[in-house]
Batch of 4 targets.
Target 1
Amino acid sequence: MTDVVLTLSCEDRLGIVQAVAAFLAERQLNIEESQQFGDRSSGRFFMRMQASFVGEKRPIDGLRTEFAALGQRFEMTWALSDPADRPRVLLMVSKLGHCLNDLLYRQYSGTLRIDVPAIASNHPDLEHLARTYHIPYVVLPAGKANQEARVLELIEEEQIDFVVLARYMQILSGDFVDRLFGRIINIHHGLLPSFKGAAPYRQAFEGGVKVIGATAHFVTEQIDEGPIIEQMVSRVDHTADPEQIASISRDLESTALSRAVQWHVEHRVLLNGRKTVVFS
């Protein structure tokens, strides 16, 4: 069983892999899986390793303290994680419940290893769904500033690790996004940018689209332009009406978002400027 997951990124240079492997070996950690990528365009190196102890397991906090010197030597952005940990996730939603329901079921069934201490919404419509899973449902106050202040309170009170916008249909302020950089995952239909605004599925139908999709991404101040984690598409033909297009799109949104959350939980997603490196 994997005891440690190490992720890192830094300037690409000689000796990184050797130094990391030696660090793990010296501490009786056997490498079970190793993935790496050198991005020539940015000059950055990315790595994800899974390792298990040979013999007695050591506290991960001690490993972090010891790894800090190596991280400083190579000027790394790094994390040492225990794969047994369950991230605490705040789910946010408005009125459409397909993504929320999918995430809650996956968490309930054990296929998605997260804890959901609360669901926040700007509408009361989906409180019944939260009750089904015995999760507190927080209806946010009116006004963007008040809503974001309440969300930040929830994040602190519940010790939230990251936030998932499961079709939360509000634009977040730049200050809010900056405070949670790299910790908010969003989903939107893949009809953007051609069909923005109201009734995108009707617009897609009237435009005769042949491909629809969904995009899961980190949230940045630039609306729907954050680093992409996952995208899914499906072909449609002339027989598909707006309701069918919407149904297919909802399925794509649910799956793309759950994959993005799963990969984030497993420490497979590393930021690379405006892009991501996603280790399979």
Target 2
Amino acid sequence: MPIEFGCVCLHEAQDDYLLARTIGARSIPAATSIGIAEHTHIPIDDNGISKCLRGQLVYEPDVREVPFALPQRLAAAGFRSLVIAPLLMESDVFGMLIAARRKADAFTSGDCEFLRQVSEHVALATHQAQLNSALQRAYDDLRQSQQAALQQERLRALGQMASGIAHDINNAILTGRPVHRIVARTRNRI
């Protein structure tokens, strides 16, 4: 589906802004002209973004008529129609997909439905990537714990061996036996 501007933004529940996470390759010149780059904060005001945070797909057929910051920035860059689709995971909105075209009233109901479905797939893929990342961190933590336990076991064994050697040498000194025989026996232990 051709769009002239597209980006994916993420949102944390405690934040009052969106974080532009990914901008479409063809959208970069337009994004630059409206002051949006990757990792840019986009404020949330009482507009389509706040509606989208409640889980609604938002369609603005002509952004020139919408008096809020993001639609006005898009209008200033020559865009007219806008769709904002929520990225939902278990009824929680963690981001949104923003798509714009230069013509007014340029998105059909089929286009909006397609973007809603794309946002569901993007949300699922993002969630799977987050789960995979968490699983990888858990495996890494487990591996580090196993290595630490193995190192502790080696140190414990080394300590026991050193204690045994010290005990043998101490006994040899106390009983008057030659220490060189104990040293020879110790070499055999190692």
Target 3
Amino acid sequence: MLDPATNTNTQVPTQAGGNPNLRPEIAKTRTVGFSIQPTGALRNLQLSVDYYRIKVTDYIAAVGGPTLVTQCFNGAQDACAFVTRNSTGALTFIRNVSANANQLEVAGTDIELGYKQGLGDIGELQFRVLTTIYHKLEYVNAGQPISGRCQTGVVTQQSFPSMACYQINARVNFTRGPWQAGLLVRYIPGGKYANTLVGPQDAGYNPALANSVSDNRMPDVTYVNLNGSYRFLNRNGHTLEVFGAVNNLFDKDPPPYPANNIGTNALIYDVIGRVYKVGVRFKY
């Protein structure tokens, strides 16, 4: 890591772990929403919209060794308590333990639209679309706000997620007697690799800047899942059902960008690949 006090790269022993002096996190949540289910020709339609805003103070996280050193160098005394130097000023030890050092705020809107339609003797078809729009995702570390919204490439800080601008999940289910089949499509739009970096696509890009990168964009990704089941028994509250599913049907790889030594943002993208599941459910 780079020590800003000496302007040299150095390897420093770092302790990670818990902290007996932690205080409980405090969250304040505000929500408002409505739901509509029309009558008449649209009686099978349902729409719900919910807005939420959550603010967490005394947010518990391990800030990170390089961040602690930089904050201490900039005069943050709370950070200096976790950084040790010898008599010559060289770094000798960093305690990167969990602390009530941060604040997290997220706001968004969930929109859900559902519709079902009977097909007579053929069966029943159901549609459901759930969209989450993120208006704000802000992490405050030692008084410095960092936005994780529309950032899908990296995790900005340890224990701090980043999010796309929005996500869409669409499901179609078909039921005919004991048979059921479903299709789930999950869409993640493209976003920035990191909000703290500047690429050719961003205003003010200059290759001479220390935070400049050659590409600061992530592609959009679509995942498709299939599932099906057959119910052998449904009598007097007793049921027996066999089911199967294929997740990530087309074996879509995550975007290959460096993030936390994983090679991608595992909080957003599928890092496993195509998965098959088969099982039996019973109730008695």
Target 4
Amino acid sequence: MNAQTLSVDQKTMNQTGLPEAVNDRLSLYYPFLKDWETIGYKTVTCENIGSDLHLEPSRVMEDLESIGIISSPRIGYVLCNVIYELELFFGWNKVNQGIIVGAGSIGSALLGYGKFEQCGLKIVAAFDLDESKIGGCIHGKAVYPLEKLVEFVQLGDIDIGVVAVPATEAQIVADLLVEGGIRAIWNFSPVHLEVPESTIVQNQDLYCSLATLSKKLKASTESVP
């Protein structure tokens, strides 16, 4: 790998110690491998993964080697071993309990997403201020009043708090999560959260993603003669 490529890949490092781009690709390999396991395959190669995800096999090999997964000559990888190592790397071998604060459109959609547990997240409840939702269930998850949040987190051994409220309420929610002892926040609100250094925040900014998509679409349209 040349120095120029290295500098690009290492622009952003995360808690795993790997460049963000490598971390993102590794997370994409997992659902592909799980699908292959479901079909009944026992082994997989870099060529199989690369072909499906439109990546060079050498890139796939480098990514897997970065977390200690080495291929065997003529065989490739034992499928169950690669899946296990990825689950271990991302911490998905341990299911963390989580809650969602905000039972609106985004929160309700997240409550209905059934594959979080494959990635180590079990949503156990939701919280909201809307009295018409409190006391009910959304996708089988009970909705509690916001005033019960801190107590619920402290008593329920909750690891992850998902913030899906309007920007004006996001910091208040974050403060409550921190007060309850939440160690990680997945933030879907378009606002920067002020939290202690010991609290991990992952921002999922839908507005920025849409802006990037719109910009690419605009550039693509302008390039067409």
